[in-house]
Structure formats: structure tokens, C-alpha cells
Design a protein that fits this description.
The protein is of the alpha+beta class and 233 residues long. The protein is 15% helix and 35% strand.
Length: 233
């Protein structure tokens, strides 16, 4: 009996510790730097649908990951809070052929509806939407392409790390520790690219809002996110 109790205790102990090891956590250095977790690994606290409702069952939480389940139509989800100057960091993992994205400065426009600047997440090889350079992984979707000479993306089924840095009008897209795109909102290059995009009718001018939500996109495929954290600048 004692041996059985000990076995149950050890199984419980190691099970709890395994779960704890999978949950996101901030280091003491990150806390001092001002980082905040946007996902605690266990709940959807701090997240809502784009319509302001609770996160539906189409998003699953398991092993410290937040996953859009295929076929469950979970829809896009956004942070309850809005952000202006920030640094966002997260990891993503997709299935083959998947199309997803991370939007920032997501808000309602006077003309154009609810819009956000999108860091594209895509299987560049197998996804259907892989014909334009500014639709490939890491791009500012439908506006600006990445530096393909610098981009190193891990294959579907493997984790990739994203950083998005926005300070004033300066924006940077990072992938796996490498800066693959930088631009200035409102300058000529930016304005010309927006004019050629599907967002050229937006009022105010697309991407020129001062703040907005962070959005995780559900686009029909399986995509997982973890270690979602943000620091205001």
C-alpha cells in the first residue's frame, strides 16, 4: 500500500512539474524590462473575439499553447487592451499549407471596417496565397515584402519566433532572431505601397492610427501560439 501511495505521489508530482515547465513565464530580467505575458498558458484571460465576446471553443489550450482548431471556426481573437509603442514577441507553429497572421493596430476605421496591419504567417511552399512577395511569411501583408536574403523560416510542424517592434512611426518585423523588414509608417515608400494594396480606400489612411489591439488570426488551418508577451515602449 505504501509503495502504491508513493507511486501515485511521484506520478502526481512529476505531472504537475511537467505542466508547470510548459507554462510561459517571464524571467526576472524580463520583468524589470517591463514585459507582460499576454497568454498565461492556461486561460484566455485578456483575449476576446473581434466582436467583443468571450473566446469560443474553436480555440484550444493545451500544453501551454493556444491553438486554432481546424474546422471549428474559432474566428479571430484580439487583446482586450490596445497598444501604441510596443515590442511583441511570440512563437508560432503551423500545419502544412496553413495561412494565418498577427495583426497590430487593429481597430475600426471610419471607412473600411475593422482593419489591422498584418505580420503574415504562411507556409510559403504549400499555401494557396503564396503568389505575391508581400503575401509571404513575415511580410507586411499585401503592402511590403520582406528581405528574402535574410529570412530563415522553420518548416511547418516546427516553432518560429516573431518579434514586432513599433516605436513612433518606425516598425520592424523579426523572424527567428533576424530583422527581415523595417519601414516607416507614412513615408513615401509606405504610402505608395498602401496605394497599391487592398487597403487603399481606408479612412483614416491605413496603418496611420495611433493605437489598436493585437489580433491572432484564424484562417481555417491549424496554427498554435505560445510565449506571447509584450512590452510597452
Amino acid at each position: 500500500m505504501k509503495k502504491q501511495i508513493l507511486t501515485l505521489f511521484l506520478c502526481s508530482f512529476f505531472g504537475i512539474n511537467l505542466i508547470s515547465a510548459q507554462l510561459p513565464k517571464l524571467s526576472s530580467k524580463e520583468i524589470k524590462q517591463g514585459w507582460t505575458l499576454l497568454f498565461d498558458g492556461q486561460t484566455t484571460n485578456g483575449w476576446i473575439t473581434a466582436a467583443g465576446k468571450p473566446v469560443p471553443a474553436g480555440w484550444e489550450i493545451k500544453n501551454g499553447c493556444l491553438t486554432a482548431v481546424k474546422g471549428d471556426k474559432g474566428g479571430d481573437i484580439i487583446t482586450a487592451d490596445e497598444y501604441s509603442d510596443f515590442e511583441l514577441s511570440l512563437d508560432f507553429n503551423i500545419e502544412p499549407g496553413c495561412n494565418s497572421g498577427i495583426k497590430y493596430f487593429y481597430t475600426k476605421y471610419a471607412t473600411g471596417g475593422n482593419l489591422g496591419m498584418e505580420y503574415q504567417i504562411l507556409d510559403d511552399k504549400l499555401a494557396e496565397d503564396n503568389k505575391k512577395e508581400n503575401h509571404l511569411c513575415g511580410s507586411f501583408y499585401d503592402v511590403l515584402p520582406v528581405n528574402t536574403n535574410k529570412k530563415k523560416v522553420n518548416a511547418p510542424g516546427e516553432w518560429n519566433t516573431v518579434r514586432i517592434v513599433s516605436k513612433g512611426k518606425k516598425v520592424e518585423h523579426w523572424l527567428n532572431g533576424v530583422k527581415i523588414l523595417q519601414f516607416t509608417r507614412g513615408d513615401k515608400t509606405y504610402t505608395d505601397a498602401v496605394a497599391l494594396s487592398k487597403f487603399n480606400k481606408a479612412v483614416p489612411a491605413f496603418g496611420m492610427v495611433e493605437k489598436g489591439h493585437i489580433l491572432l488570426q484564424e484562417h481555417g488551418g491549424v496554427v498554435s501560439f505560445k510565449n506571447i508577451k509584450i512590452k510597452t515602449l
